């Protein structure tokens, strides 16, 4: 792992602001309004505001074309942190006079009126769906209603999808940050493998992953984790949201996890599947199918390819097998705009007892890939009640995918 922690330069700021100005120019917009989700969730699942500011997420950005962005933060401690950053020599992208406290629609309206922007045409980032977290958009009803009601002369146009597509291909500085995240994730997966021994509790495996992230100058807000001689679920460990004892690992169990390693708000995803001792042959077969799907995906992730062809390439190795998928096979990262599902998602007989079960849809199949786009390859295959998920983070390259991690892309052994 590099000893030099990556940071962003003023040139990166100018690249980002220039991209936003080109969007406004091409769409005939005077300004953008960009909504960022609260920082208390990992620290934010939806943070285009921080892309503009390089500050704490959880703000509303008002970006007049050709000017410096205006940032409306949610609490005064963000201002205090901005002051503190100046004491330690950090060169902020946002000047003090363009930072306000009060993340409410009425306050946004007041700022827009004070700046003489109340008759502008605004592009809005935050109204459109953003699966898997915000199927109806992210802007709260009261915030958006206040903006609409109190700015009758303004015009508004949703541009979130267009904006997110434009920022999908990462710069060299962003790729350096992603590589740092990937190194952290690799170390987290290895720590989990070492901890997955008979007699250990799931919480101990979880704990070493959290510790490893922090010790390597990164973070993770959640880890998906499950274990057992059979396992069909996928999500955070149940003992995080329901009062119950964590399972104890036994010989023959498989520990399944999804690790979210982050640094600087750029996330990599890792899919460790850890076999503890001698495991059932169904797990071995499922792992072989998932690995074949992974390899097909890496090969297909090249500039100029169409995302739908990547999805088809990953489906092909598992199509004829009698298996099902617990979640999508592949999706884009930072941002989530392309999702490729398998053909037998949630295909369990027990599903017939439930109400309408809508699997996560395949999205973005017509998108042409560009070098520097980021994808989580997470092929998964369930045979009966035994499921394996493996994979990692891959960049789109000129002639194929560029893998950022390796240990979780095969069945790991404990």
Description:
The model has no long low-confidence stretch (mean pLDDT 96). The protein has helices at 10-27, 48-53, 77-87, 105-114, 141-150, 160-166, 172-195, 202-215, 238-241, 281-300, 307-319, and strands at residues 31-35, 60-64, 70-73, 99-101, 121-125, 155-158, 223-228, 254-263, 266-270, 273-275, 330-332, 339-340, 374-377, 380-383, 386-389, 392-395, 402-403, 412-413. It starts with 9 loop residues before the first helix and ends with a strand. The chain has 2 domains: 10-166, Creatine Amidinohydrolase, Chain A, domain 1 (3-Layer(aba) Sandwich), CATH 3.40.350; 172-413, Creatinase/methionine aminopeptidase superfamily (Creatine Amidinohydrolase). With 414 residues, the protein is of the alpha+beta class. A hairpin with a 2-residue loop joins strand 8 and strand 9. Strands 4-3-2-1-5-6 form a 6-stranded mixed sheet, with helices on both faces. Helix 4 runs parallel beside helix 5 (141-150), helix 7 packs antiparallel against helix 8 and helix 10 (281-300) packs antiparallel against helix 11 (307-319).
Q: How far apart lie the N and C ends?
A: 24 Å
User: CATH top level of the largest domain?
Assistant: Alpha Beta
Let me know the number of strands: 18
Rounded Rg: 22 Å
Number of helices: 11
CATH topology of the largest domain: Creatine Amidinohydrolase
- Strand-and-helix sequence, N→C? HEHEEHEHEHEHHHEHEEEHHEEEEEEEE
Q: Main beta sheet, described?
A: 6 strands, mixed
Low-confidence spans? none
CATH homologous superfamily assignment of the largest domain: Creatinase/methionine aminopeptidase superfamily
């Amino acid at each position: 792992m590099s000893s030099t922690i990556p940071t962003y330069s003023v040139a990166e700021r100018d690249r980002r602001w220039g991209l936003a100005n080109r969007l406004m120019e091409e769409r005939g917009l005077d300004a953008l309004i960009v909504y960022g989700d609260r920082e208390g969730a990992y620290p934010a699942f939806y943070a285009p505001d921080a892309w503009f500011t390089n500050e704490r997420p959880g703000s509303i950005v008002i970006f007049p074309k050709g000017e410096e962005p205006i940032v409306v933060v949610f609490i005064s401690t963000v201002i205090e942190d901005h002051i503190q950053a100046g004491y330690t020599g950090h060169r902020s992208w946002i000047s003090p006079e363009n930072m306000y406290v009060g993340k409410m629609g009425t306050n946004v309206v007041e700022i827009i009126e004070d700046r003489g922007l109340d008759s502008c045409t605004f592009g809005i980032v935050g109204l459109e769906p953003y699966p898997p977290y915000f199927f109806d958009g992210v802007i709260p009803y009261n915030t958006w209603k206040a903006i609409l009601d109190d700015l009758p002369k303004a015009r508004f146009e949703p541009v979130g999808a267009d904006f997110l597509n434009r920022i999908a291909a990462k710069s060299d500085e962003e790729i350096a940050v992603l590589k740092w995240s990937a190194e952290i994730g690799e170390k987290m997966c290895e720590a989990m493998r070492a901890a997955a021994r008979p007699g250990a509790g799931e919480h101990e495996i979880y704990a070493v992953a959290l510790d490893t992230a922090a010790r390597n100058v990164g973070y993770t807000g959640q880890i998906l984790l499950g274990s057992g001689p059979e396992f069909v679920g996928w999500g955070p460990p149940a003992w995080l949201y329901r009062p119950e004892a964590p399972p104890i690992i036994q010989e023959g169990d498989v520990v399944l996890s999804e690790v979210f390693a982050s640094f600087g708000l750029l996330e990599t995803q890792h899919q460790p599947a850890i076999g503890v001792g001698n495991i059932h042959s169904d797990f071995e077969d499922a792992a072989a199918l998932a690995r074949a799907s992974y390899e097909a995906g890496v090969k297909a992730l090249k500039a100029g390819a169409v995302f739908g062809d990547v999805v088809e390439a990953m489906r092909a190795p598992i199509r004829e097998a009698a298996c099902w998928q617990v979640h999508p096979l592949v999706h884009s990262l930072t941002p989530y705009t392309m999702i490729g599902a398998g053909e037998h998602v949630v295909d369990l007989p027990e599903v017939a007892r439930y109400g309408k079960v809508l699997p996560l849809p395949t999205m973005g199949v017509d998108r042409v890939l560009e070098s520097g786009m980021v994808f989580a390859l997470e092929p998964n295959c369930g045979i009966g009640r035994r499921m394996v998920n493996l994979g990692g983070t891959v960049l789109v390259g000129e002639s194929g995918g560029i893998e950022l991690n390796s240990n979780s892309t095969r069945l790991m052994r404990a």
